[in-house]
Amino acid sequence: MLPLFDPNDSEAGMKLLEDLTSNAYQIQQQVLQQILATNAGTEYLMGFLSGQSDKQLFKKKVPVVSYEDVKPYIERIANGEPSEIISAQKITELLTSSGTSGGQPKMMPSTAEDLDRKTFFYNLLVPVLNKYVEDLDKGKGMYLLFIKPEITTPSGLMARPVLTSYYKSKNFTNRPFNRFNIYTSPDDTILCSDSKQSMYCQLLCGLVQRDEVLRVGAVFASAFLRAIKFLEDYWNELCSNIRSGHVSDWITDLSCRNAVSEILLLNKANSDLADLIERECSGSSWEGIIKKLWPRTKFIEVIVTGSMAQYIPTLEFFGGGLPLVSTMYASSECYFGINFKPLSKPCDVSYTLIPSMAYFEFLPVQRNVGDQVVHCNGTVSDQNCLEEDQNDKLVDLVDVKLGQYYELVVTTFTGLYRYRVGDILMVTGFHNNAPQFRFVHRRNVVLSIDTDKTSEDDLLKAVTKAKLVLEPLGFLLTEYTSYADTSSIPGHYVLFWELKMKGKNINVEAELDGNIMEECCSTVEEWLDSIYRRCRKKDKSIGPLEIRVVKQGGFDALMDFCVCQGSSVNQYKTPRCIKSEEAIRILDSRVVARFFSQKTPSWEPFRMDIISE
Ligand code: AMP
Q1: Which residues pair with 184 in a beta bridge?
Q2: 330 Cα–ligand 1 center, Å
Q3: Which residue numbers delimit the GH3 C-terminal domain (predicted)?
Q4: How confident is the model at residue 571 (pLDDT cuts 50, 70, 90)?
Q5: Helical H segments across 245-364, by residue range
Q6: What's the whole-number average pLDDT of the chain?
Q7: DSSP state of 215
Q8: pLDDT value for 367
Q9: Which end of the chain, N or C, is less packed with Cβ atoms under 10 Å?
Q10: Residue of 166, 331, 354 best suited for mutating to test ligand 1, as the one with most atoms within 8 Å of CB
Q11: For position 381, what pLDDT does the model report?
Q12: Nearest Cα to 273, choosing from 293, 247, 248?
């Protein structure tokens, strides 16, 4: 069903995109028909459709579901039952998503064919970039790409993040020679499981080949900024490697070492290059450092929409005016959409969903003045339960309305049926007959630094555990809120706490014990989910959690501010996460003490046997 095309042929690529978007309705119908015809006999669909593959029946009978509904099926597959429970095609691996369930990563089914679908999707990005940026085939891309830990399920299936799966697949490593696809990082450096060695080697290769680099990037903005921080810490050593032509001894991963040594050899020991990089890096400011180190770079390709938007100012500082390009919108469940105007400003980025990737439906949501997502049933609650009749409210891809907000629901080729992705999107326009969406936010996520997604409930659970450390000492936590502080790299979670002594009206700050407060910081971290703890411990992409204690009345001042902004006094609830700079400033100006976690939280790859207990 996937049309073949050569990504080097821009004209053919653009024509294909025109066809896909012009025929969005027909393609969506075919996709649903194909998914139903193939999978009608699965245990899951049998339960609702009794073996029929009628599209109208599907819409009437198959419920809209969340992860908790499909989790038992996925766990059965992980434990060795056949794929046919949910998918006629063999489930070849499980993709661990950054969303969590019960503190553990969610797992999405994947098939061999799905890898081809992803490759098709990546190929579609090529003509779009070429349309707006000339001569990308005249040089290389310095893309800093990484793999993450994987586990094997009891049945022997691999469970790992979607990009790890893709980079390790033949589709990536045997990618046909494609002149728009030449990276400075040898595959062995991308596939190195030691993230520090991987980062060092990829930066070394990128620096050595600086004259050839026409674009730089990473998948998410957070990863790219981590690379800049790494460069800040290691430029001296990197320069000395370039000068001597030898890679540092601590690079012990053999395939990685060999690949980098080969590149160093090709480029010969190079004192001039080392001097030049040293000069730039030792300058008084790193403003525009990317342009200085890679002068031919035309743009920085990183996702800067959604929670990644918080990194735009920092990226602009280092990029010195280079465009920030968010090319795609994707997830472990499915790859969704492409940005047809890659050079548009980050705030104007919209993604066009590609109609052949899955069957897309949309659950309307409303936004109120307070910027809060409110379901059309009028509740502000964002719980996973759906009213029974909400099946009727789903809208097809081609029927969404301009300016309206929706939650994305997908039916995939890999065994997810009417699955709520959890992303809220807004329709900004149409490309031919295919709607374009701005990513608004992820349902129920309040804090995110890297791939972590912490909900209000997750935060409450962790704070409740930390409170237990303080309570025996007579302290009461009367209010709390939080924000993601990304002013330094890596960013970290900040909690504002207002404390009170039980029965006494005294200044708490005099009584605060630093060790105990640090223990509170680590307790919160220990009780946040496994993705947070992985980012903290393994990826080091999140810094130590901080608690800022504010003086009495700090949260009253926050309430006054929110009321001024239009919240109703009667209905006011302390926001558990604040984003407004003014709100943060109000609390910051009342901070009496700050404490940081002194321990890295525990983390090990999750274990299937524990999950399924
Ligand atoms: P995961 O399943 O861990 O790969 O996470 C997928 C989620 O990341 C999506 O459902 C979105 O919430 C978020 N995401 C992916 N791509 C983008 C994007 N281009 N802009 C904003 N958020 C994104």
Answers
A1: none
A2: 6
A3: 458-582
A4: confident
A5: 254-267, 271-281, 289-293, 312-319
A6: 91
A7: E
A8: 62
A9: C
A10: 331
A11: 38
A12: 293
User: Residue 392: which region, alpha, beta or left (left: phi > 0; alpha: psi -120 to 50)?
Assistant: alpha
Interval between CA 335 and ligand 1 midpoint (Å): 9
CA 288, 241, 231, 324 dihedral sign is: positive
Q: Hey, what amino acid is at 389?
A: D
Per-domain residue ranges of the chain:
184-326, 356-442, 446-611
Give the pair of three-digit tokens for residue 584: 């943060």
* Cβ atoms within 10 Å of 371's Cβ, excluding its own: 12
CB atoms within 10 A of CB 108: 27
Using the predicted structure, report yes or no on whether residue 44 has a pLDDT greater than 90: yes
- Tens digit of each residue's pLDDT (9 = 90 or more) over 226-246: 999 999 999 999 999 999 999
> Who's near 479: CB < 8 A, 6+ residues apart?
497, 498, 554, 555, 574
510, with CB counted inside 10 A (0-12, 13-18, 19+), is exposed
Q: Which residues neighbour 46 within 8 Å (Cβ) at sequence distance 6 or greater?
A: 40
Which tokens sit at 331?
Answer: 């997830």
Residue 62 C-alpha to ligand 1 middle, in angstroms? 25
Bridge partners (DSSP) of residue 328 are: 338
Neighbours of 132 (CB within 10 A): 16
Please tell me the predicted confidence (pLDDT) of residue 533.
95
Q: How far is the CA of 319 from the centre of ligand 1 (A)?
A: 23
Phi, psi of 41 (to 5 degrees): -85, 0
